[in-house]
Automatic annotation (TrEMBL):
Coiled coil: none annotated. Keywords: Membrane, Transmembrane, Transmembrane helix. It holds the Pfam family DUF6328. The keyword Hydrolase does not apply. It comes from Streptomyces nymphaeiformis. This is Integral membrane protein. The chain crosses the membrane at residues 49-68, 80-101, 121-141, 147-169. InterPro entries: DUF6328 (IPR046291). The keyword Ribonucleoprotein does not apply.
């Protein structure tokens, strides 16, 4: 059995610097049809993952209205609940839409357009999902902590984390890759 250890921050920096200096490996030639098919398969896999999460959250939210304590909620919490359910329904619609797009446009040779539209709908659905999670947390923490201010501070921190994980990190990596590709020049 081999032992594994975590790299230190300095070791990670060295690995990243070496990777940045290494030229990008040429990709095997991929035709337009193969690229569109690959991208469609990626969208489908991403959709499967996101749909599961949003559907579980939506089902949980729908069941809350039928609990005994729901009727004890104040006006703010009831309004927040309605907003949260609407966000969850909207997120569900956006994340399931790529399947409907494909089914409705199947056979019309519009796969590239479907892939582009599906990607945009996925991004929209993910934003709505993040907002749904934030509102769900706000509702839950408002009830548990007994105040919207404390709950709002915690939710703000969580939403910042979502933004960093889901948007800032990919954007940073994309910029770095594009910069590296520009520096490498044409091949």
């Amino acid at each position: 059995m081999t032992a594994t250890r975590r790299l230190t921050e300095a070791e990670w920096r060295i690995v990243e610097e070496e990777a940045a200096r290494r030229p990008l490996a040429p990709r095997p030639t991929e035709g337009a049809r193969e690229r569109v098919n690959r991208r469609w398969q990626e969208v489908l896999q991403e959709t499967r993952v996101a749909q599961t999460g949003v559907q579980i959250l939506f089902g949980f939210l729908l069941s809350l209205a039928f609990t005994v304590r729901f009727h004890e909620l104040g006006g703010f919490d009831r309004g927040l609940y309605v907003v949260t359910v609407v966000l969850a329904a909207s997120s569900t619609a956006a994340l399931i839409a790529p399947v409907s797009l494909h089914r409705c446009l199947c056979g019309l040779r519009l796969k590239e357009e479907v892939v582009l539209a599906a990607g945009r709908l996925m991004v929209c659905g993910m934003v709505l999902l993040a907002l749904t999670v934030g509102c769900t947390l706000l509702l839950l923490l408002d009830v548990v902590l007994g105040g919207a201010l404390a709950a709002g501070i915690v939710v703000g921190a969580v939403m910042l984390w979502f933004a960093l994980c889901w948007y800032a990190t990919p954007y940073r990596l994309r910029r770095r890759a594009l910069s590296r590709a520009r520096d490498a020049g044409p091949r």
